[in-house]
Amino acid sequence: MSTGERLQKFLARSGVASRRASERLIEEGRVKVNGRIVQELGTRVFPPKDRVEIGGKIVQPAEKTYLLLYKPKGVLTTLHDPQGRPTIKDLLPRLKGLFPVGRLDFASEGLLLVTNDGDLAQKLLHPKYQVPRTYEVKVEGIVSSKEMERLLQGILLEGFVVHPSKIILIRQGKNHCWLEVTVHEGRHHEVRRLMEAVGHPVVHLRRVQFGPLNLRGLRPGDIRHLTPKEIQRLLMLR
């Protein structure tokens, strides 16, 4: 006999939001099941028998969409900005429930996974799965081998020891150098803060890889659907 599906998982699977964001919607009393507001996270639903609503609209599972976007600099990783600045929504097709998996800051560019699969997004961002993110980074000055070693050993940031899993010198100029930096946690401004901690502020940052996905063949602003093989590799990270 079916035991149903947790409400927050159903919302995430339907492309409403990530699992965590769906939990907040429930706790805030914004979700109705069969006409009744539900705020218990343990609530189970039996689709399609049960009617789930948010804001008066019935929630229905959406066909899963997985897109790879090369986010340009000067674009916010959000779907709406009160100040009217450019957002990734301006670059996306008009499909139901799309949202970015993680973030790239306004001044950064590079690979961004966009989907309506909230369940997968939640897992890809969870520290348990250690999904690698690789960046090409231009910094002020020349990073010495001693500074690289310090970075690999870990830097204390806001009470947490944070460190890249790999750091490689790509090339150097007179007053700057380019590095390839791989991290596994994706903390807020993590790479920028790590480089500032060793005295080398970031001049330019581009994410070139997220898990099995890379930017090959794309230019800023380009977007494409993931291949079946890429989708399968992401799902296998669960």
Write the layout of secondary structure elements.
Layout lengths: L4 E2 H7 L5 H9 L3 E3 L2 E2 L6 E2 L6 E3 L2 E2 L7 E6 L27 E2 L8 E7 L2 H8 L7 E8 L4 H9 L1 E3 L2 E3 L3 E7 L3 E8 L6 H8 L4 E9 L2 E2 L8 E3 L2 H8 L3
Parallel strand pairs: 9-15
Antiparallel strand pairs: 1-4, 2-3, 2-5, 5-6, 7-9, 7-17, 8-9, 10-14, 10-15, 11-12, 13-14, 15-16
Helix pairs in contact: 1-2
Structural account:
The chain is of the alpha+beta class. It folds into 3 domains: 5-58, Structural Genomics Hypothetical 15.5 Kd Protein In mrcA-pckA Intergenic Region, Chain A, CATH 3.10.290; 66-126 and 222-235, Alpha-Beta Plaits, CATH 3.30.70.580; 132-210, 2-Layer Sandwich (Alpha-Beta Plaits), CATH 3.30.70.1560. Helices cover 21% and strands 30% of the residues. Strands 7, 8, 9, 10, 13, 14, 15, 16 and 17 form a 9-stranded mixed beta sheet that branches. Strands 3-2-5-6 form a 4-stranded antiparallel beta sheet, with no helix packed on it. A hairpin with a 2-residue loop joins β15 and β16 (213-214). α1 (7-13) packs across α2 (19-27).
The CATH class designation of the largest domain is Alpha Beta
- Give the low-pLDDT segments: none
Radius of gyration: 20 Å
- Helical content stands at 10-25%
- Tally of strands: 17
**CATH topology of the largest domain, what is it called?**
Alpha-Beta Plaits
How many DSSP H or I helices?
A: 6
Distance between the termini: 26 Å
Mean pLDDT: 91
Oligomer: single chain
Taken as a percent bin, the fraction of beta residues is 25-35%
Based on secondary structure, the structural category is: alpha+beta
H and E order? EHHEEEEEEEEHEHEEEEHEEEH
CATH-defined superfamily of the largest domain: Alpha-L RNA-binding motif
Shape: elongated
Largest sheet: 9 strands, mixed
